[in-house]
Amino acid sequence: MNMRDGIKVLVTGANGQVGHELLRALGDIARDPDPHPALRAKEKDGVSRPFSRREKETVVNPSPVGRGVGVRVRDREIIAATRSGRLEDGAACEAIDLADFDGLTRALDRVAPDVIINAAAYTAVDRAEDEAEAAMRINGEALGVLGAWAQRHDARVVHYSTDYVFDGRATAPYREGDATHPVSVYGRTKLAGEGALRDNGARYLIFRTAWVYAARGHNFMRTMLRLGAERDQLCVVDDQVGAPTPARLVADVTAQSVEQWTQDETATRDGVYHLVATGRVSWCGFAGAIFERAQRAGLLDRVPSVAAIRTADYPTKATRPAFSVLDTTKLRGAFGIALPNWQAALDGVIDELRPGPTA
Q1: Shortest CA distance to 58 belongs to which of 77, 40, 41, 39?
Q2: Are 147 and 204 in contact (CB under 8 A)?
Q3: Catalytic residue (choose from 122, 164, 174, 186)
Q4: pLDDT tens digits for 70-86?
Q5: CATH number of the domain encompassing residue 167
Q6: Cα–Cα distance, 310 to 291 (Å, whole number)
Q7: For the chain, how many structural domains are there in total?
Q8: What count of Cα atoms within 13 Å lies in the side-chain half-sphere of residue 300?
């Protein structure tokens, strides 16, 4: 299987943070398969400046089954799917609801993808404590359906998991083979999904990521920008540590990895990988970095004061891991990918939001 030899890629959850970026990244990699410049470009000061603001033009054509839209780039067709059957801009796409197993199977039969990239999930971490069955159906059991279909049809599956499969008690970055011990319903359902996909015998990649944010959608960075414009002081948790990771980075790394993986007929690179930016910071430290960069970029008039608080001072229904730093050695070695540090990655996302020149 070769990503440039007429294969069909289905992206579920295409309206989500990662799914939205995947539609761009998969088109970009079809045009330019060089894995490194798209992920990390070094300026004269030696600091990584990932993520260009320039978007390459794509051509949208009807999907071959007459439902929704597909983007054809060279000989690859990228088919988007959302639960509603509509993309954010109102364009029609495939309608796939992971909670509807019969409908999911019918959609897979209709689209007949060679590669399924599942960016759909139940992500309401606190609500999952009260909706465990719904969360398990989408995050856990649906992966068994995807994996079984892929195994029967010689297709491959790419899936995203989370730092929540760990309990957060470690003091060194988690490696892929470290013991899992989720402490929330959300974490347990995501771990169940990993197992359901693995046990079906399909070819698969699972990317565990953490602290994902983007220039669009609902996420910590956008919440901080909104609150920072409204308040002079904010209180932010300082005893949870991780590596903030842009959805754009997740998508770019996925595209580059899948490009290589689909040209590899062996299963040596199948498995679980950790995909996050490098370095570590607390939520409080991340908030401060967001505000400083946002003011310089003209997104905020002033930098609000940020007060550090403990997790115990901000109780939530679901327990969060206190330590969410993931070791990316395996990913970097298997696919030869360089990852930016979280500060440089944040620079790139803030740049996406920077006001353009006025006439």
Answers
A1: 77
A2: yes
A3: 186
A4: 555 556 799 999 999 99
A5: 3.40.50.720
A6: 20
A7: 1
A8: 25
